[in-house]
């Protein structure tokens, strides 16, 4: 065996490879984390916000449209489906703005991926929410958002991320 080669291998331990997205999602499913895709539908300096109904868990809190990914769906596919179901629009899903995890007091965990949406076809129709509003980014912190969204809301209001 080439001793120098062996030495140089020891001196250079393998570098951790970038974890593939598919592994991350499999791990999340194992831990019972709900994978959720969410849209920041943008119109100039405004974003579309939605209020949960009184009969839902976390009643009357504000959130962004979106929902849980179904098995085999990519986040973008899930989001396009949810926006059609919830708002009746055919949206072009843009780039991913951020990803975050949160565990609610109930013990349930969510893994949220937020995507920008700048273009869509069709008229926005409220199919499932208590209320819908276009909100100036600066005014977002005045709404009572789901806890998992609050950091993002602060950052957007501060002019970050977009
Ligand atoms: N759509 C959406 N969901 C969010 C946001 N922030 C956040 O924590 N969530 C959570 C709430 C839900 O637990 C989950 C989305 O699930 P869903 O939209 O498919 O269904 P749901 O509200 O009826 O939720 P669940 O009763 O099944 O938990 O992600 C957000 O900004 N938008």
Tell me about this structure:
The protein has 162 residues and is α+β, with helices and mostly antiparallel strands. It contains 4 helices and 9 strands, in the order ααββββαβββββα. It has helices spanning 3-11, 21-30, 75-87, 150-157, and strands at 33-43, 46-51, 62-63, 66-68, 90-92, 96-103, 109-117, 119-121, 131-136. Strands 1, 2, 3, 4, 6, 7 and 9 form a 7-stranded mixed β-sheet that branches. A two-stranded antiparallel sheet has the order 5-8. A hairpin with a 5-residue loop joins strand 6 (96-103) and strand 7 (109-117). Mean pLDDT is 89; it is low at 1-13. Bound molecules: 8-OXO-2'-deoxyguanosine-5'-triphosphate (8DG). 8-OXO-2'-deoxyguanosine-5'-triphosphate (8DG) is lined by residues 34, 36, 38, 56-57, 63-68, 102, 110, 112, 146, 148-149. This is 8-oxo-dGTP diphosphatase.
In DSSP terms (H or I, runs of 4 or more residues), the helix count works out at 4
- CATH-defined architecture: Alpha-Beta Complex
- Estimate the mean pLDDT confidence: 89
The profile of the biggest β sheet is: 7 strands, mixed
| CATH fold descriptor | Nucleoside Triphosphate Pyrophosphohydrolase
